[in-house]
Amino acid sequence: MNTAKRDIFQAVADPTRRAILTLLALQVMTPNALAEHFNMSRQAVSKHIGVLAQAHAVKLEYRGREIHYHINAKKMQEIDQWMATFRNLWDDKFGQLDEVLKDI
Amino acid sequence: MNTAKRDIFQAVADPTRRAILTLLALQVMTPNALAEHFNMSRQAVSKHIGVLAQAHAVKLEYRGREIHYHINAKKMQEIDQWMATFRNLWDDKFGQLDEVLKDI
DNA sequence: TATAAACGCAACCATTTGGTTGCGCAAATT
DNA sequence: AATTTGCGCAACCAAATGGTTGCGTTTATA
């Protein structure tokens, strides 16, 4: 079990890992099932899953020799919380744009 | 002017760049003004700004020898759009948790 | 005109990343 | 019991990253 801390933002920085998270948002999956969706070695996918696990973006459920990976929605929420800083900006800035366009 | 494409998720993967974006959400700033907030060389901060520019997370406004960096809220919205996949999950999963706790 | 300030380019370096292949162990299947 | 399956560990490699220092060009100031 790896206990190294990993940043959730670093975890989602890679497109492969984002795709993994998107798949897990739909259903619980095993490493081999996930690997079938990518054109890279099973080990490469396993490495990405490892990064997601370190960031606590996924939760593991061991069933014999199989591991079922679940999305950890709570962890994903940290991204949403950071985004709060900008949310009011695009609302406001789009409002400003509308204002400018109205004057043309 | 760099035109290399850069992923917005890769841009925010680094804590220094997230801090830069948070500062720019508050006010327009120049590279030197931004550099004052960090314990690293001015050039290191400039490099980070370069990554953000490549990802179109910031917009540049040249004023003589100074560059004023603005947040590009529209680009930040891409992160929010990807997050939509998970938003209903934590609402739903928290709801399930409430359901379980209610039975205790 | 001389000097200072703003700030990116380039080279360098250590570390990290993202992929591959080979291997080994435990669980499941035959 | 033998074989297969699931899947992580380790080593390797090329590329990318994140920091530093030195330098040069353009703009602003004295």
From TrEMBL, chains A, B:
Q: In what residue span(s) does the HTH arsR-type domain sit? A: 1-91
Question: InterPro entries under this entry?
Answer: ArsR-like_HTH, HTH_ArsR_DNA-bd_dom, HTH_MetalResp_TranReg, WH-like_DNA-bd_sf, WH_DNA-bd_sf
Q: Which domain of life is it from?
A: Bacteria
The GO terms this record gives for MF are: DNA binding; DNA-binding transcription factor activity
| CDD domains, A to Z | HTH_ARSR
Pfam families in the record = HTH_20 (PF12840)
Q: Which PROSITE patterns match?
A: HTH_ARSR_2 (PS50987)
Which keywords annotate this record?
DNA-binding, Transcription, Transcription regulation
Tell me the PANTHER family matching this sequence. Answer: TRANSCRIPTIONAL REGULATOR, ARSR FAMILY, TRANSCRIPTIONAL REPRESSOR SDPR
**Official protein name in the record:** Winged helix-turn-helix transcriptional regulator
